[in-house]
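If your schedule permits, I should be very grateful for your opinion on a structural question. The matter concerns a single protein, recorded as an amino acid sequence and a row of backbone structure tokens. Could you please explain, in whatever detail you think fit, how the structure tokens follow from the sequence? I set the record out below, with my sincere thanks for your time.

——
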Amino acid sequence: MKPFFADVAKGIRASAVLIGTLIGAGYATGREVSQYFGRANPLTMVVAGVAIALLSMLFLWVGRQGEPQGKWLKVYQALLSVFAVLSCGVMLSAGSSLLGGAWTPLVLGLAGVAIAATDKLFHFANLLAVPLLVVLVLAVLPSATPQPFGTGFLVGSALNYAGMNLLFEGELLRKEGRDMSPRAIVIAGVIIAAVMTFLLLAMRRMVGDSPSALPFAKVCIVEGKEVVVKCVIVTAILTNIAGAMRLVPDGFAPLPKGVSVAASLALAFVIGEVAFEDLVRTVYPVMGWAGVAVGVLYALWGLASCKKYPLRGFARQKWRKRGIDTPAPHGL
């Protein structure tokens, strides 16, 4: 495969991992978009899409530089695993509330774990899920009654939304960035910005500033397309749970992988007993600002401590410990 097309393939794969994991039940119900962007103008959603893309590129670049070092890596991974379990709980709560059935959370949880089990299945699921989500949204958008956009330019909402969606997705992107060139990272960023901006604008156009807990479901019911919202919800929940479960073993080591995944899923079931609307209203804003702060700090620390290209100044002490008195590589 020629280098350019190889970079395109890697960019598509990385963007699919981000978008597939990022789009969860909050987006699928429309509740998340209405909560964050109900009173916002279109530019706010453009800023959110671009912010998600830029943060994604930052994590991909960290991954390209090498493996971050130091005791804080385990602390960071443990923190991410906690938020990943919390996110799984929100997804299971949504599945129970929106799809019904006593066994629905168990089926969704086990299916998500199965998807996360291998790299090939995980990437295939996300590559399939993202275009499916776009098609499903487009199936409703033309016939739905357009809702007017707000007038506020809410930068805080845009950044909070971007941070919430990159709190643990960023670590997945770091792993994806290990074999990506700068061109592939840019391609991934462009795709993420374009797709996320479209999905946010399209959903906001359909649900408006709705007080409902399930605004997109109501739109689909009015249009006689209940099957669409169910497909969107199932797809979003599965890929979100799969992405979260990819991180759990790293954060809860040295526990065996099977034990950490089983314990995390059990805890997620407990969290899932809380009402979905309450979780979205209280948990998501906390995850948002935590994602912005922790994500940016981690990215800077990761660049400073990685094996391949230590940064000038930050990594000088680490070089000296290795008996190397020369400065960091030229230009870094």
